[in-house]
Amino acid sequence: MLAGVLGCFAGRFGRVEPRRAATAFVTGLLSDLEVKTCWQLAEQAGHARPDAIQRLLYRAVWDADAVRDDLRQLITDRFGGPDAVLVVDETGDLKKGQHSVGVQRQYSGTAGRIENSQVGVFLGYAGASGHTLIDRRVYLPASWTDDRDRCQAAGVPDEIGFATKSQLAADMITAAIDAGVPAGWAAADEAYGNSAVFRAHLRGHGLGYVLAVSCSHLIPLDGGKTRVRADRVAAELPASAWQRRSAGAGSKGPRFYDWAWLDDVCTDADPDDGGRHSLLVRRNATTGELAFYRCWTPQPAALAQFVRVAGIRWTVETSFQAAKSQVGLDQHQVRRWDSWHRFTTLALAALAVLAICAADAAHHDPADTGLIKLTVNEVRRLINACIIRPISDLTHRLHWSG
């Protein structure tokens, strides 16, 4: 699978040197290195200097978006299906200094507070047999796009202007649909679900959606004549409105919640969209905590379908966790626009190796043996134990320690 993933985009390199460097780079990301910077990856690959690995990110001639396209095709060929879900979310990387592209003091979900950080918006793909990340965009705050000298110093193309995170997410979804990615649904958290423009964008593509919204989100009732807070709508629901259903398997078994579904509400959208609008409410059976979702489908759908998609949204969180803990997604030490996209794309390639291997292991597993299914963490451990042969020559190690 490692060879297959690397081979899917090998033709994007016009010279053998950057192609070999990319192979070493992705293999190094899969290795058991604690820190995965250019220096560590070069040492792992057996290079005498970090030049080849650094050149791959900074000066070598190759198109990271074209490599992304090849990866996306490989992943959707493996996991694709008409009921697959496109999931968008962002993640932040804590940074020092002011020169890394997109960095500023802003809220970071990683830290849970406002920190000096860099935010990337990602598109995940979840099919019946597996899930992983298939696209990425770096978020440029207005403090960057309003300062063209700063953008030029970081290599940001002149045509790149300010775009909100939901606009970046919409761009990735449009690119996926235009590329023929099979999907029937989209899912996202409330940062995207609260955006009427983002919801309209999904309807324009005919994608059904289950988008989280905030408790204070105003739900249009009676054809938009009345607007009521989502939590107020939930408070007035009778006990008979709730059904207990699983949102999918978790680490400890099925994730059961109570669900209430209000069909044919939220009708303030374009009346000619031809679809069905509804509100979905999830209640934690233990704590009573509520979550709210605005839903739309081009055709009538059952409650079970909305619950499934709501549960799948969490796959992007597990992909982030795996990408950071297993392949160093957040360990890049790059400042420029191209370098960020190149590092991130190669990290997605390494993540794809793990995700596809784990899915293949689950698919080929015989009848229930009572053993835990292979995870991406265990797949990476096996790759290091059975495939990657680290350089152990003492002279080489002392050279890098000098």
From TrEMBL:
UniProt domain Transposase IS701-like DDE: residue ranges: 8-216
Cross-referenced InterPro entries: IS701-like, IS701-like_DDE_dom, RNaseH-like_sf
Pfam family, one: DDE_5
Tree of life domain: Bacteria
Cross-referenced NCBIfam families: transpos_IS701 (NF033540)
UniProt cross-references to PANTHER family, sorted A to Z: TRANSPOSASE
Stated name of the protein: Transposase
Origin species: Polymorphospora rubra
